[in-house]
Amino acid sequence: MLVNPDLVDMQGWTINDTLSGKQEYVGQVYVYGYSSQKDYADKKEPVFEGAFEFNSKTNWTYSPGSLSGDTGKLYYVFEYYATPQEAVGEDLHNRLELTAPGWSGSGSGAGIGGDNSVTIRYNTYTLKKENLSSKMDASDPEKVNGAIGWGGEFGEIQWKSTIEGYNKGSEEGAMIPSGSVYTDSLSVKEYGKSGALEGLLKYHTFDGEGGMKLVMESKSGPVPDSAYELEMGADNRSFTITFREELEAPVTLAYSSYVTDFLEMTFSTNLRFVNTAKFEFGDHVVREAKAAQPYIRYDYINKELTQSKGGVLTWKLNINGGGSNSGKTPIDLKDYPVEVWEKIPAGTELQEISLLKNNKEVTLTEGDEYSLERQGSQAVAVISLNKVAQNHGVSLSKMMRIIVRTRVTDLTAKEFTNKAQMVIDEKPLHEAIATKAYNNDFITKGMAYNANTAPLARYTVTVNPGGADISNLYGGTLTVEDYLGSTAMSYVPESFTVVRSDNGEPVTGWDIAVSSTYFRISGLPDETPLTITYNVAISGNVNAEVNTSNSATLIYGDGQRITASVSKKVVVLKPMATGTGDPYVIIDKVDQNGKA
Fold first, then answer.
1. Which of 379-393, 400-414, 420-434 has the highest mean predicted lDDT (pLDDT)?
2. CA atoms of 515 and 489, how far apart (whole Å)
3. pLDDT tens-digit map of 68-77
């Protein structure tokens, strides 16, 4: 904008500039003052120069004399830049308005100078960036809008940038000029938060197994290497392309970046691997575009303890889109070898692994669909999800649920921690961890005393209800000891029975030593759910209250013990004959048919 050729003293004047149409200012306003219009035409040095900020994206105002060195009686040259916001063939308008002191408004009422405007039809460029691996939301380049995918290998992200040119608002004949510059950079951020995660930047790089795999094309076809200069950043997380030749628009660039170590990415559960592109022509024409690839850890695998009963822990693995942070999309894993390393909790042993299909469990086969291995001291079930999908007609592009059951072998444990890890294309991901406090139930007991049982109380002791291997690890059997805590109680020796809890079949081969207040059953089989029942006589006057107590101890392994007790007050319903005499011990032996 050229102002004041007559060198009027403009101190106190207002110079106002307004844009219309879909355009915005870029940078600052630069103002130069010359002694005369001729000095400017002769390219002499200005006597004054300065810069100031825009009022808004579409307006700026300047008062001559307001900057240091500005006398107000100069020939003013205002230089500034605006950029169209849409590449369409519409006219852009720029209006300059001068207002003398004491005047207001515009047009003929604006005072000396009035106003002026300029209209142009423009040439411009646009830059678009796409993630070819995943379906992302066009309006939000960090938001998932479909399945999360990867490139030719897991951890590879395929990107595409398109530089479009417009010639007087039309795509026809548009060229990308020689000397223009395209720059590209990588970063890692937490979704929904600004700023890069500095500690994770090194894991997002262009330095993959197959390299960046850059492919560039113009409207005319493949772009020859001689048409541009490629310079990689020192950290392999950026590159710059300078165009040596004019190219017919549009120009597309397709290339890949790589995530190198998922296992160490413990900072966040919800990351975005970001790719940022810029296109520059000259010093002031800049276009920027971004795209991102999601990494939501819990979408890949998470786990939970769903049940703890009878010494058996049931764990559920939610694979491929089952996490609380998953949103709505699974990960497409069908093109990769995928394993789950199920790390059996210390103090337990694997019982079975099954697939939850149509709300029904299908048991997986060891040696085909999984193998039991050791990684150091850790027992690990290596589950091949590809084999599971193939054998059972399920898809690795959808969510999968795996059920793992482990039997408790350490009866003293207070909690168990289960870890599972996905390995995709030989790349290990994070560990999904579930920890659960354990309420030991390897020995429990109950007591019934009512009109149907009186004068006897009926006791039930349940041992190893899950049938876990808790003693054969040491080559032994199980023993149960039991004590009565009241002189008003005594065992009925002939009432003892031992059966399998799961089918009621009698158990044989055990020995019992019993007195009036103590018994010991030894030789009980391991890996078997057991139910021991017996009667206890309760003596006392009818309607008298008796405090009953009974404790049972399970002895297993190399002498380890667990005790369960039951104690409650009962009212005597029927009398029990009593007598006196010496204490006695009865030893019963049963044969294989359960006969005494």
1. 379-393
2. 12
3. 999 999 999 9
The DSSP element (H or E) to which 535 belongs, if any, is strand 530-538
| Residue the block writes with tokens 């970046």 | 257
Angle at 387 between CA 381 and CA 391, to 5 degrees: 120
In the chain the first and final C-alpha atoms are separated, in Å, by 117
CA distances from 249 to 26, 175, 222, 261, 547 (A): 24, 5, 12, 38, 95
Round to whole Å and give the CA distance between 160 and 151. 12
Region of residue 27 (phi > 0: left; psi between -120 and 50: alpha; otherwise: beta) = left
For the record, the structure tokens of 239 come out as 């590159």
Sign of CA dihedral 269, 212, 135, 86: positive
For residues 238 and 236, give the distance between their C-alpha atoms in angstroms, rounded to a whole number. 6
Sheet hosting strand 511-514, strand order edge to edge: 560-571, 545-556, 478-484, 518-524, 511-514, 586-589
CA-to-CA distance for 204 and 256, rounded, in angstroms? 11
Give the residue, 455 or 322, on which the prediction is more confident: 455
What region does 521 belong to: left with phi over 0, alpha with psi -120 to 50, or beta? beta
The pair of structure tokens assigned to 162 is 């398109």
> What is the rounded CA–CA span in Å between residue 556 and residue 527?
12
The two tokens of residue 406 are 């482990």
From CA 389, how far away is CA 320, in angstroms rounded?
A: 13
